[in-house]
TrEMBL record:
Molecular-function GO terms, alphabetical: UDP-glucosyltransferase activity
Family according to the record: Belongs to the UDP-glycosyltransferase family.
Record-listed E.C. numbers: 2.4.1.-
InterPro entries for the chain: UDP_glucos_trans, UDP_glycos_trans_CS
SUPFAM superfamilies in alphabetical order: UDP-Glycosyltransferase/glycogen phosphorylase (SSF53756)
Organism field: Medicago truncatula (Barrel medic)
Record-given protein name: Glycosyltransferase
Keyword Nucleus part of the UniProt annotation: no
Length: 490
């Protein structure tokens, strides 16, 4: 191809996702976008995480999309073989070891890049060393984040606020100053997460630009202008990446292998009325105490609506005894709800994109992780927001305050990690009230649903020819080629 007359050499891109499903899945989809537009893309990951990219690899000519694996330093960090993703974590110690192991990938990845250098590295901003990989003049880096631009902008605004403030705003209610929207927080994140956020910002700023798995219409022009003005940095909205999966089969197979068959799930959903089902899922890295799970069960049963509930995998395993199950499920719950087909409990990974795109689903109770948020928006589904940690509290503000496509369940306590037990429990009454606000007939529910559906239409248009994300992708490819050739870009 290089020597063909009149044929421009494709970009050679290396993509480095962090070892968590919320990072690997969207970056795998973005790799497919570049490859489907004729660019040569290599995804670099570890052997046990290769399955996250199987569908991406099978959908594109292998000349344009390939996988390269580097060994995870299991022995060095004290983990058994095969435990290489944060979705495998069972406790805080395992989480820490996986993170440390991911940072040690710097060496083998650098060795690979030196032997076979790319034009550009698109690196997850969780890795502080991605710029060290581009230590040759002809290699540049782009940062990728699993966040919305709204959240990245909020992180920067809060950083400036903390540096200028003489009060401890992390423990009292405050309005974020100098931000395009009026955003109030009752408390701030833990100090350790603040340090993580600020490290991420430094990595972003050093790059040539920031790739976002979102579309312009959701983050909003005000936020984009604010980001570019305050950060002096370009953001590229290329999503929602989940919408490149068009068939039911593709949607069902995105991510991990589901513990429930696509056909079983579809058969259950097909028997339900449009917009009647509550879908409940709190992501792949989640922990709830038995008491909180019990409150969820009581709340959704009291609300009286049909539901699909994805229960954290460490809870509700098939070998769990009835005595253990009774600790978190009310007596007779399964007989009243599961056996009569009013509810469906999925224990483990679920085909979320497929479920959200089904006409029967009318609301989504979510932890506000960005993948889940953008998948719900793409499907036009209103949300019940239940953030737990990290940027999830920022995403909640975008959903409920700015876009007004969801309602808050009332979670206010930030956790540092997935396994931290909450001091403040969300009550069954709060859960019931939030479910009824979206699924009972009423003016508020109808208005929220209409707004959600309008955003869903905008999301679909964004990735189609002529849409904002499609145009961004073509412009980015052109700009990167011009930069490679030493030509100016607009």
């Amino acid at each position: 191809m290089e020597g063909s007359v009149g044929v421009e050499r494709p970009l050679k891109l290396y993509l480095l996702p962090f070892l968590s499903p919320g990072h690997m899945i969207p970056l795998g989809d973005i790799a497919t976008l570049f490859a489907s537009h004729g660019q040569q893309v290599t995804i670099i990951t570890t052997p046990s995480n290769a399955h996250f990219f199987t569908k991406s690899l099978s959908s594109v000519d292998p000349f344009f999309l390939r996988l390269h694996t580097v060994d995870f330093p299991s022995q060095q960090v004290g983990l058994p073989d095969g435990v290489e993703s944060l979705s495998s974590n069972i406790d805080t110690d395992t989480t820490h070891k996986i993170y440390v192991g991911s940072m040690l990938l710097h060496g083998p990845i650098k060795e690979f890049i030196e032997k076979d250098p790319p034009d550009y590295i698109i690196g997850d901003c969780v890795f502080p060393w991605i710029h060290d990989l581009a230590n040759k003049p002809h290699i540049s880096t782009l940062a990728f984040t699993g966040y919305s631009l709204f959240s990245v902008s909020l992180i920067e605004a809060l950083r400036v606020h903390r540096s200028n403030s003489h009060t401890n705003s992390d423990s009292s209610s405050f309005v974020v100053p100098n931000f395009p929207h009026s955003i109030t927080f009752n408390s701030g994140p833990p100090k350790t997460f603040i340090e993580f956020e600020e490290g991420m910002l430094k990595t972003i700023i050093k790059s040539k630009g920031l790739i976002i798995n979102n579309f312009v219409e959701l983050d909003g022009e005000d936020c984009i202008k604010h980001y570019e003005k305050t950060m002096g940095h370009k953001a590229w909205h290329l999503g929602p990446a989940c919408l490149i999966h068009e068939s039911v089969q593709e949607k069902a197979e995105r991510g991990n292998e589901s513990v429930v068959s696509m056909h079983e799930c579809l058969r259950w959903l097909n028997s339900k009325r449009d917009n009647s089902v509550l879908y409940i899922c709190f992501g792949s890295i989640c922990y709830f105490s038995d008491k909180q799970l019990y409150e969820i069960a009581r709340g959704i049963e009291n609300a009286g609506h049909e539901f699909v509930w994805v229960v954290p995998e460490k809870k509700g395993k098939e070998d769990e005894s009835e005595e253990e199950k009774e600790k978190w499920l009310p007596k007779g719950f399964e007989e009243r709800n599961i056996k009569n087909k009013k509810g469906l409990i999925i224990r483990g990974w679920a085909p979320q994109v497929m479920i959200l795109s089904h006409n029967g689903v009318g609301a989504f109770m979510t932890h506000c992780g960005w993948n889940s948020t953008v998948e719900a928006v793409s499907a036009g589904i209103p949300m019940i927001t239940w953030p737990m940690r990290g940027e999830q509290f920022y995403n909640e503000k975008l959903i409920t305050v700015v876009c007004k496509i969801g309602v808050e369940v009332g979670a206010t306590e930030w956790s540092l990690h997935s396994f931290q037990e909450k001091e403040k429990m969300v009550s069954r009454d709060s859960i019931e009230k939030a479910v009824r606000r979206l699924l009972d007939d009423g003016d508020e529910a109808n208005e929220i649903r209409q707004r959600a559906q309008e955003f869903g239409r905008k999301a679909t248009h964004a990735i189609q020819e002529g849409g904002s994300s499609h145009n961004n992708l073509l412009t980015l490819i052109d700009d990167l080629k011009r930069l490679r050739a030493g030509k100016p870009v607009n």
